[in-house]
Amino acid sequence: MNKFLISIIGPTAIGKTALSIKLANHFNTEIISADSRQFFKEMQIGTAAPSKKELSAAKHHFIHHKSVEDNYSVGTFEKDALTRLNKLYNSHNIVVMVGGSGLYVDAVTKGLDDFPDVDPEIRTTLNKDLETKGLAHLQQELQNLDPEAFKAIAIDNPHRVIRALEICKGTGKPYSSFLNKAKNIRPFKTITIGLTADREIIYNRINKRVDIMMDTGLLDEVKQLLPFKDLNALNTVGYKEIFKYLNGEWELEFAVSEIKKNSRRFAKRQLTWFKKTENANWFDYQTPVKDIIKVCEEIMAS
Length: 302
Known about the structure:
Strand order of the largest sheet: 3-2-4-1-5-6
Helix content: 40-55%
Structural class: alpha/beta
Distance between the termini: 11 Å
Number of helices: 13
Order of helices and strands: EHEHEHEHHHHHEHHHHEH
């Protein structure tokens, strides 16, 4: 197998984008984004999408190619990404993938988990529970039924919580028991590069990034999206908190503090997910890129 996918993983604000560009330039190749929030063209500042300068430094795919009004699932992304990879491998032996959305990364590298069909009435009931009892109630249910899934999935995303619960209730088995089964064989070898740091450093970097987002116009970006606030794509950190400010529920200072807090929680869940990645090569975020390139080249040559 002489085709390689260098998959860069790690928590938000750790420096994945910068590393991906350096690796893409070194290997004279292109970048696929597996960050589900950066797909949407209306969400640039709050998702820390690559800047125009970064986008021009290396060819990127799946950045701002959809609208928040589009229904774009992880299953569709898997198909689109594999199709794009097949084309890229016609002219490149190596492609770089970068993203903090663990499910989307796994969809490309391993394939999605296969779940049994369940009674659609279960989802209808859970959606009603979400409306009447709130997300916290569903989160508690999931924690009781499947503590492992509760720790691993994006617990602030009601669609992910409902999906896990409907499998638990519909099969009588934990959602997590269906994860990480044998997946499809891929026509490339994945080299996983993980970036990490002490938790205090990660949290400080997140706090600084949020301040930069506010300074560069996050509030105005979210104002433009207020008519779409109920869409799934916008039920995410950095947007839902500002919506509460715009709706008069919170003061702006408190909303910003909540973005920082929820971003730190998101980073913690990312690390929990990514630490389970088999054969990942973990590096401190300040590791010189030449050291990371050396490891990649050694794996390719082995």
